[in-house]
Each structure stands twice: as C-alpha cells, then as structure tokens.
Specification:
The complex is a heterodimer.
Chain A: H1 5-22, H2 28-52, E1 67-80, E2 84-94, H3 99-115, H4 123-142, H5 146-155, H6 157-167, H7 172-200, H8 213-217, H9 233-249, H10 258-265, H11 268-293, H12 295-300, H13 302-321, H14 326-346, H15 350-381, H16 392-395, H17 397-411, H18 417-432, H19 434-440, H20 442-459, H21 476-494, H22 497-516
Antiparallel strand pairs in A: 1-2
Helix pairs in contact in A: 1-2, 1-4, 2-3, 2-4, 3-4, 3-11, 3-15, 3-21, 4-5, 4-6, 4-11, 5-7, 6-7, 7-9, 7-10, 9-11, 10-14, 11-14, 11-15, 13-14, 13-19, 13-20, 14-15, 14-18, 14-20, 15-17, 15-18, 15-21, 15-22, 17-20, 17-21, 18-19, 18-21
Chain B: H1 3-27, H2 36-59, E1 74-89, E2 92-104, H3 106-129, H4 136-155, H5 159-177, H6 184-215, H7 220-228, H8 237-254, H9 263-266, H10 272-281, H11 283-293, H12 300-323, H13 327-348, H14 351-385, H15 402-405, H16 407-421, H17 427-446, H18 452-476, H19 483-486, H20 494-505, H21 523-527, H22 569-574, H23 576-583, H24 593-629, H25 635-641, H26 643-650, H27 655-727, H28 735-752
Helix pairs in contact in B: 1-2, 1-4, 2-3, 3-4, 3-10, 3-14, 3-20, 4-5, 5-6, 6-8, 8-11, 8-12, 10-14, 11-13, 11-14, 12-13, 12-18, 13-14, 13-17, 13-18, 14-16, 14-17, 14-20, 16-18, 16-20, 17-18, 17-24, 18-24
Chain lengths: ~525, ~750
Amino acid sequence: MQFPILTLITFLPVLGMIIVLLLPKDNKRAIQATTAIATGLQVILAIVIWMVFDTAKTGINDVASMQFVERLPWIVIPSTPWFGEIRIEYFLGIDGLSMPMVLLTALICFLATFSSFSIKKSLKGYFAMFLLLDTGMMGVFVSLDMFLFYVFWEVMLLPMYFLIGIWGGPRREYAAIKFFIYTLAGSVLLLLVMIGLYFSTTDPQTGMHTFNMIAMMDPANVTTGIFATIGSSARMLAFVGLFIGFAIKVPIFPFHTWLPDAHVEAPTAISVILAGVLLKMGAYGLLRISFPIFPEMTHYFQIPMMILGFVNIVYGALCAMAQTDFKKLIAYSSVSHMGYVLLGMAALNVQGMTGAVFQMFNHGTITAMLFLLVGVLYDRAHTRGLNEFGGVYNKMPVYSFLTVIAFFAAIGLPSMSGFISEAFVFLGAFQTNKLWTILSTLGIVLGAGYMLWTFQRVFMGTLPEKWDDVLTDVNGRELFTLVPLAVIIIALGVYPSPALNWMSTSLGHLVEFVNANAAPVLFGGF
Amino acid sequence: MTADTLLTLTLIILFLPLFSFALLLAFGKRLPRKGDAIATGLMFLNLGLAVAVLFGVYALPETPAIHGFAQTPIQMNFKWIDFKTTIEVFGNTIPLQIELGLLIDRLVAIMLVVVTLITALVHLFSIGYMHGDPKYHRFFAYLGIFAFSMLGIVVTNNLLMMYAAWELVGLSSYLLIGFWYEKPAPGYAATKAFLMNRVGDIGMWIGIMILFVSYGTFRFDLIFAHIAAGNLPFGSDAWLTAAGILLFMGAIGKSAQFPLHTWLPDAMEGPTPVSALIHAATMVAAGVYLVARTFPLMSGDALLVIASIGTITAFVAATIAIVQNDIKKVLAYSTVSQLGYMILALGVGAFTAGFFHLVTHAMFKACLFLGSGSVIHAMHHGLHKIHDHDTDAQDIRNMGGLAKKMPVTFATFLIATLAISGVPLFSGFLSKDEILAGAWAFGSLQGQLAVLVPYVGFGVAALTAFYMFRLVILTFFGEPKRPDIHQHMHESPATMTIPIIVLASLSIWIFYSFNPFSGPSGWFVTSLPAPTTVTGSNWYPFAHGDLTHGDVTHGDVMPGDVMPGDVTDEAVAQGVEDRTAAVGQGSVVTANPSQEAFEHRVHESHLPAMIASLILALSGIAVAFGVYKRKMIDTDRLVEKTGPLYRFLLNKWYFDEIYEKWVVLPGVHLIARMMHWFDSRIVDGAVNGVATITMLQSRMSGLFDKWVVDGAVNGVAYAAGFFGIVLKKSQTGRIQAYIAFLLAGVVILFYVFR
C-alpha cells in the first residue's frame, strides 16, 4: 500500500487540535505556532500532491484512474434484518475535480491561521475548532464514499457554528444558529437521497449495497430500489432534493440569505474560510454527486440551472450595490460570483465546466483576499460602514494598492485570474443558451459598478479626521496573508494553463459522461 | 529586416513600458529624479524601435492579400490554453485551444509609431507639467502601464487579447483620470469613464462570444477566412451583422461615441498630459482601430449603423463645443466630434480615410491638448503669484492676449488649429478631405436618408473651424481679460515646448503627401488600401449590376471564393502560411464589386468635396474672426436671443442629466434598493418566517406535550397512586385474606370466561 497522503492531509489538523487541547490555556504562542505548523504542513502536503498528481488521468467515474486512493472497510455490520450487511468504506481518492479544491483548502486555511492571530478571546478553543473545521472541509473533498462524505460534511458544521457563535460580532448567535439550521436542513435532503441511493446501488464486486459514489455513477449498478428507473420521478425528486441541499451551501438564490449574516458576524478568518472554501463544497457536491449520478436530470434541469445562475449573478450584484456595510457587500458579491460557477457548470461543455471549476478556485482566492482586506480596515477602525470612510488611499498606500488588485480581480479585469474563468463560463454558456448568457453579461457592468463605487467612497476623496491617528498601513503579518493571494491571482491571470491542466482531463471526461448518459425524463415510475 | 526580427522588436516595444511601470511602481521613490528620466528614456527608445519596425514593414515585398488586408501579415502564435478536447466547426473537427499572438502589418506599424511617439512626447512634457506633484513617480508608472495596454491592443492578432488589452486600457485610464483622487470630481469621473466603457464592452464581449462559438478561434485571419468561405455565425446573415454591431459597441464606449460619449469630457479631470495622451490621441483611437481591424467582417448593415453613430456623434459634439468656456472641454468635445468623423468614415466604407484621420488627428489634437496644458500651467503660475485660489485656470473667459506672453505655445496651437480646421498645407486638410469624399460618395450611392451623412459631415467641418478659432481668438488674441494674472504668466520650459513643437511640425502636410492638395497621392493613402470585405453580398449593395462582376447573391460562388469546408483543420491549427498552402490562392478574396463601385465614386467625388470643405472651413474661420475678433455681433445679445438653444448646448444636450435622472438613479440605484428590500424582507423574511412558525409550532407542541401527553402520563401515575393509596389498605399481610381474595378472583374469572 502506498503512503496514505490523503489521510495525512485530512487528519493532520486533528492531530494539531489534540496538541492544542493539551497545551496550557495561556500559552498563546504555542497554540498559534501549533496551528500554523499543522496548516503549514498541510500546505506542504498539498504541494506534494500537486507535484505528484498525474493530469492525464480522468477519475470521475473510474476508480482505476483516481489518484492517491486509500480504500479500507470502515464500518462493517455483518448482517442485520432489512439492511442486510452494511458496508461503509473508508474510501479516499482525488481527481482533477477535487485536486484544485484540496490545494485551495490547504492554502486558505494556512493564510486564515495567520489572520486568526488577532483573536484575543479563548484562543485555545478557537484554534481547536479551527483545526477541526479544516479536517471537515478537507475530508469532503477527498472522500469517495458517500457516507464518509456525509460525515465530513456534518463534521464541518459544528466547529463553524461555534466559531461564528462565540467569536463573532454582535448578532453572532442569530447568525450561527441560522447558518447551522439552514445547512442542516440541506443535510437532511442529502441524507435522504444518500439512503435511497444506497438501496438502489449494488456493488458489482461484492453483490451488496454500497455507498461508493463511483459505483452509483454507473447505471448498470443502479438496478434495484427507487432510483432504478432512469428518468423516473423519484430520481427527479432526488435530484431536486440534492440540488437544494447543495444550493444552500453554494449559495444559490433563494437559499442564500444565511450567507450575508454569517459573513458579517463571523471573525475575519472565518469569513475567509467561509467564502474561500465552504461555498465551494456546494458546487463541488453538485459536480461530484448530482451531475454524474443523475445525468438525465442534469440535462432536464439545464436551463433552469442556467436561469438560476443568471439570477445569482445579477441579483447578487444588485443587492451588493445597495449595501453600506463593507463586509455585507463582499458577501453579496460572493453570491454574484458563485452565479458564474452555476452558469458555467450548467452549460455542460468543456469550456463552461472548466470555467466553473476555475472560477471556484479563483473566487476562493479573490474573495478571501477581499475579506482579509476588509478585516484589515475593521481591525483598525472597528467599523465597516462604507460611508464613514474616504481618502484611505493616501493614508494607507500599500493597503490601497492591494485593494486595487483585489477589486479589479473581482471585477474580472484581464490579467487577473477571475477574468479567465468568467470568460470561459460565458463562452461555454453562450454555446448552450444565448439568451440567459447575454442577460448574464449584465454582471460585467454591475460588478464593476459596486466595486468602483465602493472604491470611490472608501479610498478616494479626503480622510475624515477621526481616522487620522487610527489608520496605519498594513503590517508584516497582514502582508504575509495578502501578498501570496495577490501573486496567485495575477500569475493565474497571466498564465492559467498550469491550473487548467489539473482539471481539464477530468472535467472533459465529466462532461462527456454526463452528456453520454442523457436520457429522456418520464413522469411516474416510482 | 526579417519577420523574426520584426516580431522580436515588436515584443520589446510591447513589454518595455510594462517594465517601466513595474520599475517605477516598486522603486520610483528611490530612483534618481524619481525615475522620470528612466521612464522617458525607455519611451524614446521604444519610439526608435517603432520607427525601425515601420521602415522594416514598409521594406517588405508586397505579398498577395489574404482576407482583406493588403499584405500577408506577419504573425506569431503561441498556445496559451489547451482544453485537450476538440470541437466541431463547420464540418471540421479542430482542437479546442486558445492561442495568443502578434500581428504586424502596415496598420500596426503606423499605430506603433503613433502610440510610442505621443507616449514619449507626453512623458517629456510631464516632466515639466507634473513637477512637484507628491505622486510624481506614480504618474510615470501609470503612463507606462497605459502604453503597455494600448500597444497590446495594437499588436494583437486575436479578439481575446484585444479585449484583454482593451480592459487594461480601461484600468490605466481609470488610474490616470482619478490621479488627483483627493478631489471629488476626478474620482467620480474615473468611475464614470470605466463604467460607461464597460457598458460598451458588454456588447463587444457578446460579439466576441458569437464569433468564438461559431468559429472556435479568436484570430482575425481565421475568422475572416471562415466568413469569406460562407460560414456565417449560426448560419445567418443577421448574426454576422449582429456580431459586427456588437463589436462596434466596444468602440462606442472607448471612442466616446454617441450615446456613451459623456465620459470623455468628464475625463478632463485628469492631468492635462493624460488628456493629450489618452483622451485625445491614443486610447480613444482604440475604438477606431478596432473597427478598422475588424473592417472586413462588417456587413453593410453593420457599417450603416457605424456610419450613423459616427455622424450623430460628430454633429452633437461639434454643437456642444461651440459654447463651452473651459479650454479643455472645448478640446474634449472637439475630440468626440473628430472621433465621430473617423467612425463615420469607416462606416461609409472609407477605411483609409478614417485611419488617416486617426493619425493626423493624434498629432494635432495631442499638440492642442499639450498646448492647453502649457496655458493652464502658466495660468496656475499666475494665479499662484497673486494668491488666487478660486479662479478657474481653465476658463477661457479669464484668458486672452496670451500670444505675446507665450509665443511658442501660440504658434504651435495655431498650426494645430489650422490643421484641425482643414486648411490646406496642414495634415487635417488631407485626411478630412478624404473622409468627406468618402461620405459624399456614400451619400450619392446609397441615396435617401444617407445623404444626411455628407451634409452633416460638411456642416461639422464648418463648425469645427468656427469653434476652434473661437478658442484661439479668446485665448491668445485681444486684450488680457485678467491683467493681474496675465502679468505673471510666461512661456513654459523646454521640456514642455519641445513636444508641442514636434507635434505641430507633424501637423504639416509634407509628412503624409508631397502634394498638399491631394491626400490620395501620398504614401500614406496609397500604402494602405481598404481591406477587401469578406462579407460578400452582405456588404452595401452599391453595385447595381453596372459592374461586370454582376450581382453577387449569397450562396453564389465568386471566382476565387473559398468553398465551405475548405478551411481544413490542419490549416486552422497551423496558421496563415500553412493554410495558404493548403487551400492555395483560393483563400484570397477577390475584390467586392460594391467596394469597387464605392472606390470609383470616391475618386470622382474628391474635387467637389475638397472645394466644398475648403469653402466651409474658411467661412467658419471668417465667422469666428468676425464675431470674436471684430466683434461684429454682440455675443451676449446673441446668447440672450437664443436662450433655450444656448442653454441646451451649454448643458451638453442634457445627456448627463438624462442618464443621471433616468438611468443611474432609477435604473440602478432604485432597482438595487428594491432588490435589497426584497432580499431582506421577502427572501430572508421567508427564512425567518419558517423559523418563527417552527418556533410557534414547537411552543404549541411543548404545551400539548406538557398538558396533554405528559398530562396523560402523569394522570396515569396519579391514578395509579390514587388506587395505590386506596388499595394498600388491603395489603394486610394475612395469608387468609389473600386466599379469600384469590378465591373471589377465581370465581369472578370463572364467571367471566365461562
């Protein structure tokens, strides 16, 4: 058996958490250092994975071309009435779809660690929760067994709840409960579909039911149970249920309202993780589970999904324009930017799909940078009111320069990574449906509108006197978190091929697979 | 020079300004003289290289035309992105990948020289003009990134890179307009400029999407090849026309055409060298360049839209320029009007004329702007001396009589004004005459409403001469209106006057044609014939069977046309040279009969157009002298008499007010606020509503649980307890009693189950 690198990268933070819990409460340095080392090692492992990763392998529905596979029986209950033998595997592996997400998760968690150093209240609990959250997120992206996927999906909820609810802003409890219950409601749908899929899927090797997601993708294995009839209403309900479950995470209109609340109340580092990684889990779930397991429904709902993508883009941008809270504005801009992801994946062609996954990655880096920037200002001024500032540029030139980069990246300026992904999303979507793509291009102007208007209000003009002593330019620690993101954004904007190479084979295969399994949708057939 | 040398030089030209940007941004403060000398030196080096490229390109032997343009362009491509999959394009399976590349032909070579020349001169000028500014090094850095982006637009061979450079130009323009962001107006103007440009860019991007989705490539030559082969986007003429118009929308934004022209006058809030470089000579010309580059794919209907927009713009802006009092605003509206001319020219099919005017206009308008910068600089100096901080340094009503104080500025300004007014011996005369001849030919061939195009064109020529001389007279002639300022004013330093002198010299005819009355005989026009359209019968239907070619209808194969499917996949993958070999001379598009008919008519229209334009220009000048020098008409009374019209023009046709009141406020802010309300009340309200209902229900369940369910449980317990209390009396411990109970029980059961 090969070196279990995926297990290591997933559970390293838990190891860190145990050490943090063993450390004395007031040893601030040691706690911070442990977290930094844990997440730092995670980045190193992610880089190793990136180096070893074979971009020519397809993955998706093919176990043989999954990489770094680890497969062990995990929960085996020999024989129970009704269920028969229950067999849940500890099944990890990555392909071109999950690899960028693994890299992103490691990177964002590492940077968020340093951003968390400004936390003062009960450090020990904070960093323990932080590390547990890290494990949950990483686990979601590496599991190939749906039960395991679900476990990680839920594991991540709990620390997030506490991180917002304890270390958040004034309305933290409301936001934390809203986040928790909303996401849990989505999880219920996920759970129901998962159980249905379990009873419908037979593992060809063992002849028993399985939670193996790859087995679920092959229609030949789905022969019993309620999901056996391709195109049946049961499958339609399952697809819609899963879609809602994942849509809550993305978030897709109208399931997005937990996001602005959670973002505004969460501490900076948690906002960074929320936007940088957590939102990707929903889109990842759609691509990993919904699309290949229900390809005919994916086709059936293609245009509705594109319309939702359009709504996200334009509606999110318009809502962003009306905000007066800096953080809330960025939160709504996330809604808008995730709309591109949905639009691109619904296009069901290589350009659109590549654009969508690349947009997931880019949104992770760009929005993380935006939240870090807001955090810098908030740490100094203790307010995020857009109208309370002005003339920050001359007072904080380095900070403002970095903001220019982040803002224009968010606007989709060429030479920044966001442009590439948005361009591909549009090119792919246009091929599929002209009308909704053309309408979605409104986002090009609206996005520039709220960003530049914000820039004008906060950075241009003259500085109100009250900020004269308060605002100081970014310090070394903040630079350390911001500069890597800026470098990645520009590097991938100028030469995106390395990143696109990670994903192109797998996504091409995913598109081919989904299109090849398109089938007419019948009603009835429960 | 070989093709490789030219490509290398062009790459150096492209990246030197970027280097300058990075260097000055990172180390600007620590460099000697804050890096201005390095930046300026690099730009002059760039100019030298560009001139070398120009000569190199013109020394190349003429090769047969491929898809429109007169020579085979030199190209270089590299694979930027590979999706590792294939797509189907008109029966061919081609790899789905995206190439970036360079293109060099005469058009590019000339643009390179124009852009690098003006950039270099503006750098030199800025050393004097921006002296002492706290962000001095940053200004030069921004000029560098602007030059890089602008050169990117020029040298690219594909639409994607053009769009990318296009947006970067938008960014640099944003940074430069908003350079003095401490004041509210520049920040606002910068945002406005970027956003209005983006509105146009939406259209351009949709146009690019149409072409890419249809042809699987962004490259100009391959797109032209496909269209020439009869492969229309989505198989319809309408989509081809739409693609053309949509691409042109980008030009509407960038070249400040009606109805998106209002950002340009506001952009004058930027430092004056920026106005000269970006908002007069280069960036705004990018739109014209875009149309020129994509000219072969513009169908007749698309060109008609282009011509109409150009005509409207030329007229509207000229009328506004007449009444403005801010020296830079007059020049700004004049720029808008002249850009309208160029667009008009391209729209009517007079490609060479439009591009010619772009070049001549770049020289004389940069000269005018830098001249105005010199004046404003002197005014600031004067105002500073008398400690006046309220007077507007740009208002021509505070000037007058500057000719003696600033002789160099005056002389150069006058030369440039003569050029823009279309007076013989100056460059503007040559190019404007070309445009008017083209418009005339178009009007007479097209008939009906199209005759408005030449009429408006001639009218605008007269207006231009009038308002430009009004500006010169009010600024430089007569008595100083503010002697207190005037006495402290003096000529600008050499770093500022040298650029103006160079630009003024380049406004003289000799650089473009030896014969001062004939543009078409000069090297410029002869070396840049209009590219052949690839749209076939979708072009203007000028040829009414009077040419031997006969009418071409769509679907008919013209001699030399490429058949659909001839564009093979190897050819698409390997580039022009290979494709030429693969499809042979077949890819050379023969002349379009309509275009020939047009060229023929232009030739005939030259003389009458020239005479008419000359008369109109001279009368415009004469009226200006009559009104403002001789004071034959009392302007104040004229203003009173024409009150509403005057205010209408002074307020720029109320475009800004209309946009502000009808588009920005209700369209954007109101909708945004409504959406926000909807989001927080309805969408989130629903979420919270569900939560509230759930809580209510849970409270009811709680009550039910407490009183009914738990009540029942407790009731049972109470009952049990009660009976316990009652029955415990029977627990006596005496066996006899128990046996008696037992017997009684047995008897009862016996009777029950009997």
